[in-house]
Specification:
Chain lengths: ~325, ~325
């Protein structure tokens, strides 16, 4: 196996608020290989977006702070870089797609200029070369009539089209890693489907590794090779996508899969997870899921479970899983 | 078949719009809802699905009498709403309630929960004092918020799922015959969605209330509805029994919409029908069938004659020329 393009080890990122520290990312480890798609699923407040931002060291300031761990990208620790060095990575070798194309494009600049920006900064392109490259990128993301569209403003485009422009900006410098944070949540069903297919095609052409942050297990089923499930700032289970759907181990993953309404068949009643996710400011001592877990016992409340290997590449953090494994 | 409580007949809502400069604006008409007919029986759930801009929300506003009809008729228990006296109108507003998408903006942040839930009762009935309090407590209890301190709290003290429960309690407080649910779970987290969907179904069973469910998530609509109507550019293109529509969609748009829905498992094969382009502007809809510009089966007749909604199988109506001969 080749060396992963990105290795994240025990990453911890906290938000320091007046009321105390919010442990948004609390010891997250995973690795990512070229050409693969890793899904990060979790509910709002599970720390998935903060995790994505901390990989690029873009946590909201001044509250957000990375307090531990390492992010090894292509052999170098990004957390040890200076701010100036970091800038050479962002948008060039690692880029990010955000959820809302309305707010991630600047309304007062033309589309062409916005796609050109990373190219002028990172690749020092100018003039005709730049224009050709911008046109090529817009064509890559299937914008019809790219030459004419370059002089449009964002408001002249539909949501799906805008999200594709954001994609073109993210892909402008041929990044090795693309962090996509819920890029299709704001889109309609058929447009979402078009966009996901486009990302897959681009990945096959360029070999970019994608981290796909989403709350939608359907997106995961369609897009991802591996999945990490986050709960309260930690990865509670990580597995190849089929293993996760066929053989989920962590009670949270099991519950999440059972609570989905299915298009293929109709259930009278859905399985519902009772209660609420815990506050990240005041996490319990043991496993964070105990309050909502039907299997929790005294040990679960006492200590946080270690990583338990289920199979090749399949890990879950649950004491009860460990017991099952020993039987 | 039980009694029809609400019937919409060829309802239309056209918004006048002006495009272009201040000096010589072009007048146009946006046909948000363009000749929609459906009926809802007692205790039934009718789901309306469609992509953004198809007129689903305008339809809900028309039903709630928040927008005036441009044309057509809505009748409630056999009485035409346009002929309503002031008393009829008040009675209608008691009988038809609403739950909206975003529980963060649909509850006033400055009112206590007890006042929010009690307000419709106070406005519409003579129930006051301890009776009112008792009624509020009972309905909060029904939605699973039994803690006695809840009526004295403010909305910000509750999570999204709890707020949606409060909004449902408010809608139930007057014991309505029908509730318009406009995207009731799309703002909620996956694990909370199942809770709210189960709650809505339980309440329907115990109270016999009818739902008009507006949503874009096909799996949610399938799970909740007895019948489903599919909208495209202000028109109903297909309406059928929930299982029938999901398993045997007839209209090319419905087929594409269902095939674009995300799978609930990675092993489910995707046989996606690829829709090219985007939804045309409702300001300038195509002639004839609104879907013909994106339809793989478009024929010359589609550009000329708008297809009427015809019954293709028992209880299964579709507006498409492909099925004209089968009649």
């Amino acid at each position: 196996m080749t060396r992963p393009i990105l290795e994240v080890k025990d990453l911890r990122a906290h938000l320091m608020l007046r009321r105390g520290a919010v442990k948004a990312v609390d010891g997250v480890s995973f690795d990512l290989h070229s050409g693969e798609t890793l899904g990060i699923v979790g509910e709002s407040g599970s720390g998935k977006t903060m995790m994505g931002l901390s990989l690029l060291r873009l946590l909201p300031r001044p509250a957000g702070r990375i307090v531990g761990g390492s992010v090894i990208f292509d052999g170098e620790d990004l957390l040890a870089k200076s701010e100036r060095e970091m800038r050479a990575y962002r948008g060039s070798r690692i880029s990010m797609l955000l959820q809302d194309p309305m707010t991630s494009l600047n309304p007062v600049f033309r589309i062409g200029n916005q796609v050109a920006e990373p190219l002028t900064i990172h690749q020092k392109l100018a003039g005709r070369g730049l224009r050709d490259k911008v046109r090529e990128l817009l064509r890559l993301v299937r914008i019809p009539a790219p030459e004419a569209r370059m002089s449009d403003y964002p408001h002249q485009m539909s949501g799906g089209m805008r999200q594709r422009v954001v994609g073109a900006i993210g892909l402008a410098c041929q990044p090795q890693v693309l962090i996509a944070d819920e890029p299709t949540t704001a889109l309609d069903v058929t447009i979402q489907s078009q966009y996901l297919r486009l990302l897959k095609e681009i990945q096959q052409e360029t070999g970019v590794a994608i981290i796909f942050i989403t709350h939608d297990l359907g997106v995961v089923a369609r897009m991802c090779d591996r999945v990490a499930v986050m709960y309260a700032g930690r990865i509670v289970e990580i597995a190849p996508v089929r293993d996760l759907f066929n053989n989920p181990q962590h009670p949270y993953t099991v519950a999440l899969l059972r609570s989905l309404p299915k298009l293929e068949e109709r259930a009278e009643k859905l399985y519902a997870i009772g209660g609420q996710p815990p506050s990240l400011m005041n996490l319990p001592k043991g496993c964070a899921f105990t309050a909502r877990c039907g299997l929790a016992n005294a040990r679960c409340r006492e200590a946080y479970p270690p990583q338990i290997d289920i199979a090749q590449g399949h890990m879950a953090r649950c004491w009860r899983t460990e017991e099952k494994a020993h039987v | 078949m039980s009694d029809i409580i609400l019937e919409a007949c060829e309802i239309r809502k056209h918004f006048p719009v002006s495009r272009g400069g201040l000096v010589a604006p072009q007048r146009g008409v946006l046909k948000a809802v363009d000749g929609l007919s459906f009926s809802i029986a007692e205790g039934e759930t009718l789901g309306l699905v469609g992509e953004s801009g198809c007129g689903k929300s305008t339809t809900s506003k028309l039903i709630l009498l928040l927008e005036a009809l441009s044309d057509g008729a809505i009748s409630f228990r056999g009485k035409d709403v346009t002929q309503f006296t002031a008393d009829d109108r008040r009675a209608y507003r008691r009988a038809v309630q609403a739950v909206f998408q975003d529980p963060y903006s649909s509850l006033s942040p400055r009112m206590r929960i007890g006042d929010i839930v009690g307000e419709p009762v106070r406005v519409n009935t003579r129930v006051r004092g301890a009776d009112l309090k008792g009624r509020v407590r009972k309905v909060l209890n029904d939605v699973g918020l039994s803690d006695p301190s809840i009526p004295a709290n403010y909305p910000h003290e509750f999570s999204g799922g709890q707020r949606q429960r409060i909004a449902i309690a408010r809608a139930l407080a007057l014991e309505p015959d029908m509730i318009v649910l406009d995207e009731p779970v799309s703002a909620l987290d996956v694990s909370i969605r199942a809770q709210i969907m189960n709650l809505l179904k339980e309440l329907q069973q115990s109270r016999g209330v009818a739902y008009l469910l507006i949503a874009h998530d096909l799996a949610v609509v399938r799970h909740m509805s007895n019948r489903i109507g599919v909208m495209y550019l202000g028109k109903l293109v297909e309406i059928a029994d929930s299982d029938e529509l999901s398993l045997h969609p007839l209209h090319p748009y419905t087929q594409a919409l269902y095939s674009a829905a995300l799978p609930s498992h990675p092993d489910i094969p995707t046989s996606e029908i690829i829709l090219t382009g985007e939804v045309p502007s409702p300001l300038d809809p195509p002639s004839g069938c609104p879907f013909r510009t994106r339809c793989a089966h478009a024929m010359p007749v589609c550009a000329e004659v708008p297809p009427p909604l015809r019954e293709a199988a028992s209880g299964h109506c579709v507006a498409c020329h492909l099925y004209a001969s089968s009649n």
